[in-house]
Specification:
single chain; about 220 residues; alpha+beta; about 25% strand
Length: about 220
């Protein structure tokens, strides 16, 4: 199956728009990143995505610099497979009397080097598709991806924030949306002021606005 290069995600305009719409309250950064991973999963089979990469198959040939994902199973195969992002550092042709011509890959896997043989004709390999994953398995996979690639995911989000495409910021372990849900204290303030008798409606809203500004200034001073 195809996978995603979680080291360099490319969020679609629709995904960015949805994140800006649905995140109304401050959330812990891991929770926010997991929401992004789950959102990308919803886009499967990822037609036309710029961050899509192929899953390793021993019968295929690969090129220097190519990004691939390696399906990894637990020993007992109880948990669903996870997909480790790797880059081909070197792809060399080799040959032996039994297998004939094949390819030897030197991979960079999270800073570690590994070798794999591929380009082996008719090599058996189980095909995996995300459609086969249950909702619980997708959440497990999203949690694993978030833990393993949290630094890269947050870095990508910081880039989108700097360009104004993601409307929020990271602070004190939280993702804080630009337009957060109005705190209950402000709702109470507005409600109480609105029911007080005033000469004109203009003076009511002026008073509310002044108190709201004071609260926002206090809130920003507290966050800094």
């Amino acid at each position: 199956m195809d996978s995603i290069n979680w080291l360099n995600i490319q969020l679609t305009p629709e995904e960015l728009s949805k994140l800006n719409e649905v995140i109304h309250e401050s959330v812990p950064i891991p929770n926010f990143l997991e929401k992004i991973v789950l959102l990308i999963q919803e886009d499967y089979p990822w037609e036309g995505r710029a961050d899509k990469i192929t899953c390793f198959h021993p019968s295929e040939f690969y090129e220097n610099g190519q990004w691939i994902s390696l399906p990894i199973h637990d020993k007992e195969r109880i948990l669903p497979p996870v997909f480790q992002v790797a880059q081909v550092l070197q792809a060399e042709l080799a040959e032996n009397p039994i297998q004939g011509s094949f390819q030897v890959l030197t991979l960079d896997v999270n800073g570690l080097h590994a070798k794999l043989a591929c380009g082996i004709s008719n090599a058996p390999f189980p095909e995996i598709t995300l459609d086969e994953f249950s909702a619980e398995q997708r959440i497990f996979l999203a949690n694993w991806i978030t833990n393993v690639y949290s630094e890269a995911l947050q870095s990508a989000c910081t880039n989108y924030i700097s360009k104004g495409e993601l409307q929020g910021h990271f602070q004190n372990g939280l993702y804080i949306p630009l337009i957060a849900k109005m705190p209950d204290i402000i709702i109470d303030l507005v409600t109480k002021e609105a029911i007080l008798p005033e000469p004109t409606s203009q003076s009511v809203f002026k008073k509310i606005w002044q108190k709201l500004l004071l609260f926002i200034k206090h809130l920003f001073r507290r966050e800094k």
